[in-house]
């Protein structure tokens, strides 16, 4: 499983966002390599594209949210649709993007209203994740960073386990219970689960789009003990971001 992580909410510069949004593996001059994962596919399909990113330690993986309302939740391989902290009680650094409701269409070139969530890869160990909306996990909306291409723990094996899952849980949601605070799954809300998303540093915020040149960005830096200013090349911590209206 990935190393410990901490989460910050930051407003990124126009240059860094433009580079991350245009190409997988692209990065601004002198910065780390950034891999882009589209969250939600053409016509609202429940997929991550690509669903398996091969990244080096220090690389960033940026999730870009398309139309509808999705999330990115860290899990274990054996229980694909369950937050990792539900399985590992001492896992206080897991990532969770929160729900990201928006009307953005797949393939939109403009960064206006773009919702993103970024994690930093600290080693070569596989990182497993899924969407906790409705039954999206069971429908195949699962992904990984550095999943093996052969053997027992491949992306295909992970998806097969997800298809058989009895529940799809959001961080803070107990097995067999409604979503946190009794909300209907898919309704936008701040992460309040220990070790999940923005709650890891107590900001309680979820990233949303802002201006066309500088969409807000929520970033997970998987380096234990590093400060918020160390993440994403020293970008400042932003205040609470307002959710984008459905």
What's the arrangement of secondary structure elements?
Blueprint lengths: L5 E6 L2 H9 L11 E6 L8 E2 L2 E2 L6 E6 L2 E3 L2 E3 L8 H4 L12 E3 L12 E6 L6 E4 L11 E4 L9 H9 L52 E6 L25
Parallel strand pairs: 2-5, 4-11, 9-12
Antiparallel strand pairs: 1-12, 2-3, 5-9, 6-8, 7-10, 10-11
> What number of structural domains do the residues give?
1
Mind telling me which CATH architecture this is? Sandwich
Radius of gyration: 16 Å
Unreliable residue runs = 1-29, 181-218, 220-246
Distance between the termini: 34 Å
Instruction: List SSEs in N-to-C order.
Output: EHEEEEEEHEEEEHE
> Helical segment tally?
3
Binned strand content: 15-25%
Which whole number gives the mean pLDDT? 70
Structural class: mainly beta
Largest sheet: 6 strands, mixed
Commentary on this structure:
The chain has helices at 14-22, 84-87, 155-163, and strands at 6-11, 34-39, 48-49, 52-53, 60-65, 68-70, 73-75, 100-102, 115-120, 127-130, 142-145, 216-221. It is mainly β. It has a single domain (6-226), classed as Cupredoxins -  blue copper proteins (Immunoglobulin-like), CATH 2.60.40. The strands form 3 sheets. A 6-stranded mixed sheet has the order 1-12-9-5-2-3, with helices on one face. A 4-stranded mixed sheet has the order 4-11-10-7. The longest helix is centred in the N-terminal third of the chain and has 9 residues, at 14-22. The protein is globular. One of its GO terms (molecular function) is electron transfer activity. Residues 37-146 form the Blue (type 1) copper domain. Residues 171-192, 200-214 have a biased composition (Low complexity).
